[in-house]
Amino acid sequence: MSLANHIPYVRSTYAPAEMLERAQQYYQQLDARRTVREFADTPVAKAVIEQLILAASSAPSGAHKQPWTFCVVGDAEMKRKIREAAEEEERRNYAGRMSDEWLQDLAQFGTDANKPFLEVAPWLIIVFRKSYDLTEEGKRNNYYVQESVGIACGFLLTAIHQAGLVALTHTPSPMNFLCDILQRPANEKPFLLIPVGYPAPNAQVPDIKRKGLEDVAVFY
User: Fold this and answer.
1) Which of 93, 101, 110, 115 gets the highest tally of CB atoms within 10 A of its CB?
2) Mind giving me the DSSP string for 153-212?
3) Smallest Cα–Cα separation from 42: which of 182, 203, 154?
4) Residue (of 143, 3, 184) closest to 60 by Cα position
5) Cα gap 27→202, rounded to integer Å
């Protein structure tokens, strides 16, 4: 197999002091990101969401297969259907699927089976992972799908924050109902459901702290 065409890689770099300053500023910006469960119904332009998805799609992926589909829902009726199906699964989770330890860990956040944000947020972005592609020649496998889609979701969350919006990583489990509602093909499985919008004027978030560098990194 012949190699893909290659082009020179060109980008700016920085002196060590400026590099450290930029790294510190970026950390401070991302450290201000919070998961929000209370959204305003203020509209967000579709053009903004399109740019956020393009940013997410710039993520690296196994063999550059880009094994993702971003389904963007702004239709009120479809959001209602998604909320109803998600809450049905969540009621089952809170009523017995979740262990006591899991429920205790969630108690501090005050969450329950009610998910009004699925209708209030102006947009829902449902990220699907594609275990294989369907082409004219048949199935073509994708590689490192979980890792690739996870990285793309990270890019998406940082892009949402950069744009001045808020998001919630919602994972009602199981999520197969999303395949039915959105009529996705068999090679796509839901990975993450992300409401996107402005925070409600009275939105609150838990007063929690992130782990320090010494808790998350080991240098050799």
Assistant:
1) 115
2) HHHHHHHHHHTT-EE--B--SS-HHHHHHHT--TTEEEEEEEEEEPBPTT-------PPP
3) 203
4) 143
5) 26
